[in-house]
Sequence to fold (694 residues):
Amino acid sequence: MPQVNQVKLGEEFIRKREHREMHDRCLWAARMRRDEVAATIPEWEEMRELASQIKKHTLANLGRYLEEFTNNAKANGIHIYWASDAEEHNNIILDIFKAYDVKVVTKGKSMTMDECGMREFLEKRGIEINEADLGERIQQLDNQRPSHIVMPAIHKLRSDVADIFARNLGSDKDIDDPHYLNSVMRADMRKRYIKADAGMTGVNFGIAETGGIVVCTNEGNADISANVPSLYVASMGIEKLIPRKRDLPLFIRLLSRSALGFDITQYTSHYHGPRAGQEMHLVLLDNGRSARLNSPDYWEVLKCIRCGTCMNTCPVFRRTSGISYDAIYMGPIGSVLDPSYDMYKYARLPYSCTHCGSCGEVCPVKVPIPALILYWRDQIVKKGYSQISHDLEEAAIEPVLKSRRNLAVAEKLGLWALRNVPHAVLDSALNPWAEEHANPEPPAETFRQYYERVIKPRKARGEKDRSGEGQ
Amino acid sequence: MNHEAVKSGIMARINAASHGEQTLPDVPFYSWPGDPVENFIKRLIGFDGRAIKFRAREDALAWLLTQPELDREKRVIYSRAAGVPGNFGEEDLADPHNAHRVETCVTEGELAVGETCSIWVTDRSLGLAACALLARRLFIFQDSSKIVSGLHEAYAKIDLRSQQYGCFFSGPSATADIEAVHLTGAQGSLALTALLYNCADAADKPQLIVNPHADHSVWQESM
Fold:
């Protein structure tokens, strides 16, 4: 199986200028809204720290909390299932559907179900699965995986959506007004809700103390899916637990503000058992999570609450889109999650990073993504899965960084190149990465020369460090 | 499939992990500054919801019954609110799939939150939740003295296990899935109106408070 080449796939997206600019603009707007709304809450940073501590405590005591959660959930009338991997997960759900003679399903967004390839699995077995989230539905109709955890079709222009809906739902392909497209979706889904035999959703949080699950959405599709049919099936990764009810507001306050910069989702829904006349089933999925929990260097990745804010802030993601990661999880969190599913296939993803560190700064539960990226690079090199180009780069850079003299020579060479190599070579039109990335005007001297000329004499005279001045 | 064996395997792997003592911190009771009712209204109209203040519940009821959405000759109405007659009856409720016919749903909020403009509703207040989820328009009576400042206070007052379904409705349904354009009226309610009563400062002639910038889409009217 070939490795996913994010650089190449990213280039394809970068070449689509209109898409790239819209994508970058939308995600950056979400990031800026997140900053604005976080700034209105004095305790924001304290909340991030507390959320991180609660998650770490829960993970360190996960066995105990899973027992508490499942005992309480069963007492609430929820049927509980355990799945070691995707295959078990999918077969459990297929068996439930067979038992209830389910033919048509409406489904809310679920990364856990996506991770298991569940929709494709069930569709092959004759069950009609209708994605009910607008973005997810667009992607289903386009036969493409989601490009973002929270906004699955955010890499598409409205005209792309108009085209997809015209081909699949019979709408007017020349009308790309998002209001119109939304109404087309609404009208189409209504017909499907009416004939659904079962509804499915993912889970944002499971509360051990109460044995209930929490699902946070904006469209209402998950609530309709869960409440209308007589059968409701949800899937939850085993790491989604929080211990107590009083921990929940902390996470609810962080989730939507981090994801989109809004105070809350329109529907924050709590399920503590089936409604009258309904059956409720919950599948708990491991699929590598227990292995991650056993890694002392990597276990904190399980703190992730899937808000997607690391994607919104990532300069690589914003320009290349989630499609370029060609994986279930994308962006910074994807770069550190995907290799744990298949280290060879996703070995290049941890290299799609500029080390700006922004993902770690915005994560509401302080997943140390920058450190985990380095962790994976280390693992990938040790396994021999790294790229020859990366190995050569590292082989070349090592003697430079290890020697003061070599570094000084390299600085001068770099400055010479910036002054003398024609821009046509450095900013080749053939290289989409260079578009809109003009090289800086070459400075008069290297930093080392500046240091020797200005700062060092100052220090010798015992003056205060005023570096940055006089350049 | 032997579920007990699968569970034992997963539990054994989980319990093999050791991460020392990770203390469970106490979660402070963060409050939200300002007047809860005014915060609620400001945020609700920011989410394209509508609010209207009344001195007493009977004033709210009188106003509501004059609204065209409550015309029982023309609209399918599901009501869980005292004094508001509906026409979506017991027979209709036998199958929740019928709920798609509901045009107007009226209910009572059990609690609300100023911080997030959320109204707490459950099976108890909604009856058949499907009706509130599929209805085109939602009207919710809310006692303004039960609007708390923030989410921590709200959760402290809520007994999650007392009802199967409990939800914070925070404005009408919405989506931003197409070019991040914020659209009100996704798959759930197209409009949500909060009827706030026990408001001492309510005007003599009640005024709907709406977001002047909201895009009240023409497309939705036909549906």
